[in-house]
């Protein structure tokens, strides 16, 4: 099956011929290609908004390609500028993002944004014995560390639900994550020669700017696009990106900001988990309350092998007998006192 990159390579190859047949004028602005993960479409779209005269093409480096790294590089070399996120071996046949950059003189890397300040409980479960294959649950790759912990220590779902409480968040450090998350975020950006300190402050003033630890809202990606264009010496002809924003990543899963954490930042939180819905014309999608989410997680974990529900953070909690005992005790006390949130 053709990947999105394969299809884009075909379009890039035949596009100029079709344009000549249709007598379409060439783009008045630069030809730009953006290649990367789920964040890259938002960056590409924002670049088109910031310079409506540019031709901007998006290459999604997520699913394995048929085309080789040589073929991709040959197509991308025809652009005036290429902006690429890191992608690992196995996505494009014959090479990774570093190999692609070695073949191009018109390309630069930009970071994948990862910020855990709003959703510190979100973890991925990968099986190290099977090439880090991801275990999918009710929210596909997104899992709750507390839910996994509860299952592994043998708590019933109602007691697991009682873990979602301020006293538990204090015990595991969830109320003190903003500063280290921000420091890690800014340091990662600096590795790509980007200073996002002013942007991070601006985003924070707008409230919750992440749908999950890896899915930013459109205005975040627009600021990344703006900085990339400016650094490359490309014109910004329209700076009103908010009025035309497409919230592409809102179609995917959304992990909530727990109310006790949201309160720290002066934003609204909850316990409503949004399922992915990439075909919005077929329906409005589904949401899960906390009990529904936990029930779905337990159903998945019961069928999983131990290697599939291992995670360094959770393993560390379980290795600390004092902390484990405290968390179990808090769960039972919260349950007895009726401190079990639903939404």
What this model shows, in words?
The chain is of the alpha/beta class and 343 residues long. It folds into two domains: 4-110 and 218-242, Rossmann fold (3-Layer(aba) Sandwich); 122-178 and 255-336. 42% of the residues lie in helices and 10% in strands. The protein contains 14 helices and twelve strands. Strands 2-1-3-4 form a four-stranded parallel β-sheet. Strands 5-8 form a two-stranded antiparallel ribbon. Helix 3 (69-76) packs across helix 4 (97-103). The longest helix has 18 residues, at 4-21. It is elongated and about 75 Å long. The mean pLDDT is 94.
Helix and strand topology:
Blueprint: H1 4-21, E1 31-36, H2 40-50, E2 55-60, H3 69-76, E3 81-84, H4 97-103, E4 107-109, E5 122-123, E6 126-127, E7 133-134, E8 143-144, H5 145-152, H6 157-161, H7 166-172, H8 178-190, H9 197-205, E9 210-212, E10 215-216, H10 218-231, H11 259-265, E11 273-274, E12 287-288, H12 290-303, H13 312-319, H14 321-336
Parallel strand pairs: 1-2, 1-3, 3-4
Antiparallel strand pairs: 5-8, 6-7, 9-10, 11-12
How many individual helices? Answer: 14
Mean pLDDT: 94
Strand order of the largest sheet: 2-1-3-4
Give the helix proportion (percent range). Answer: 40-55%
Summarize the structure.
The chain is α/β, with parallel strands linked by helices and 343 residues long.
Fill in the keyword field for this structure.
343 residues, alpha/beta, 2 domains, 4-stranded parallel beta sheet, two-stranded antiparallel ribbon, 14 helices, 42% helix
């Amino acid at each position: 099956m053709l990947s999105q990159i394969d299809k884009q390579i075909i379009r890039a190859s035949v596009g100029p011929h079709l344009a000549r047949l249709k007598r379409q004028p060439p783009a008045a602005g630069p030809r730009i290609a953006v290649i990367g993960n789920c964040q890259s479409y938002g960056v590409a779209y924002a670049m088109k908004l910031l310079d409506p005269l540019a031709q901007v093409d998006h290459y999604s480096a997520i699913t394995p390609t048929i085309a080789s790294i040589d073929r991709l590089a040959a197509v991308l070399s025809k652009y005036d500028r290429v902006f690429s996120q890191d992608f690992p071996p196995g996505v494009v046949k014959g090479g990774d993002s570093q190999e692609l950059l070695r073949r191009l003189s018109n390309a630069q890397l930009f970071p994948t944004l990862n910020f855990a300040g709003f959703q510190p409980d979100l973890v991925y479960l990968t099986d190290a014995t099977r090439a880090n294959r991801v275990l999918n649950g009710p929210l596909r790759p997104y899992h709750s560390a507390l839910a996994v912990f509860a299952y592994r220590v043998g708590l019933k779902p109602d007691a697991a639900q009682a873990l979602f409480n301020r006293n538990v968040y204090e015990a595991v450090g969830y109320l003190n994550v903003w500063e280290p998350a921000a420091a890690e975020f800014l340091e990662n950006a600096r590795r790509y020669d980007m200073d996002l300190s002013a942007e991070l402050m601006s985003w924070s003033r707008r409230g919750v700017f992440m749908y999950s630890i890896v899915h930013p809202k459109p205005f975040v990606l627009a600021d990344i696009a703006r900085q990339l264009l400016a650094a490359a010496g490309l014109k910004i002809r329209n700076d009103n990106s908010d009025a035309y924003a497409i919230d592409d990543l809102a179609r995917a899963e959304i992990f909530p900001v727990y109310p006790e954490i949201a309160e720290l930042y002066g934003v609204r939180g909850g316990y409503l988990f949004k399922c992915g819905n990439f075909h919005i014309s077929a329906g409005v999608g589904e949401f899960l309350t906390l009990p529904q989410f936990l029930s779905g997680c337990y159903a998945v974990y019961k069928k999983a092998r131990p290697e599939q529900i291992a995670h360094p953070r959770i393993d560390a909690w379980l290795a600390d007998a004092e902390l484990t005992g405290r968390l179990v005790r808090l769960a039972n006390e919260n349950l007895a006192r009726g401190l079990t949130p639903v939404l």
